[in-house]
Amino acid sequence: MLSKLQQHYGNHFSLHTADHPEQYYWFADQAGVTFGIAKTAITSSELDLLHSLFTEAETDTRLSEQQIFWKNVISGDLQGEHPQVRFRFIHFFLKNDLSDQDAFLEAVSGIFPDEVTVLFMSGHHGVLIEPKTNETEELPYDQVKSVLTADFYTDLDLFIGRWMDSYAEGAEQFRIEREMFSSIRPFLPPQEVYCREDLIPYLLLLHLDKSASQFISNLIPDELFKDRDLIHSIKIFLECNMNLSMAAKKLYIHRNSLQYRVDKFIEKTGIDVKQFKQAVAVYHALISRETTIS
């Protein structure tokens, strides 16, 4: 049967694996032999017939050699000697499970070069593995969210991990990065891409005891939180590196209006948020209040 299928589909037929497995439909015969047929070469009626004759192959059998390699790195099961390259994980989290992971993989493959590997860890969480070479340029991660959100109608969060120089540390680092980001993801403000420095203030505050957290929150008087526009404006002002023009543009208000709100906050609290130390303290107080309320 397989020989006839191979004869019929020619170069569109593949046994066991392929360079781009996401571009194939994968099946297994009664003997457990896995084969794939290119999606572009098969009609809907032929696909229905194949589903009636064969079972759909398990996910692992559809992984490329590159995907299997990185899956072993992440699980800590990598065996033997391998040429070492510098690499990092870019974790992605979807609001909803994807109904068509193959289409998602195909879309991601169209954005990034071949060196970037994509692995799904669950229906809503996966990872991009980016190796660093002498020719590596900064990849357009800031474009990924808007492109994929538009194509698949689901929200997407991206978290960029740190560069590593050893496959041996990959499994533990993957676990730490995933756990840290997952724990504070509900509290993070929306943005295209998250880095480690975005997580640190939230990680510090979420692991404080109740007394320390309350001490920080009380830096700003309770009555000021009734003025939501003021509090929101100060937070945006701090997130824009205390740049009035940038923050005003983000808030869609005139620069003078924002200046008035900053001056009002300073007058009410006695804390000059235009100075670094005071700005850091206020920002932590705002985050502490947000995480406590959430």
From TrEMBL:
Q: Name one Pfam family in it.
A: HTH_30
Every copy of the PucR C-terminal helix-turn-helix domain together lies at 230-286
Lineage top rank: taxon = Bacteria
Among InterPro entries, the record links this protein to: CdaR-like_regulators, Homeodomain-like_sf, PucR_C-HTH_dom, PucR_C-HTH_sf
Signal sequence span is none
Name of the protein this chain belongs to: PucR C-terminal helix-turn-helix domain-containing protein
Organism, scientific name: Fictibacillus enclensis
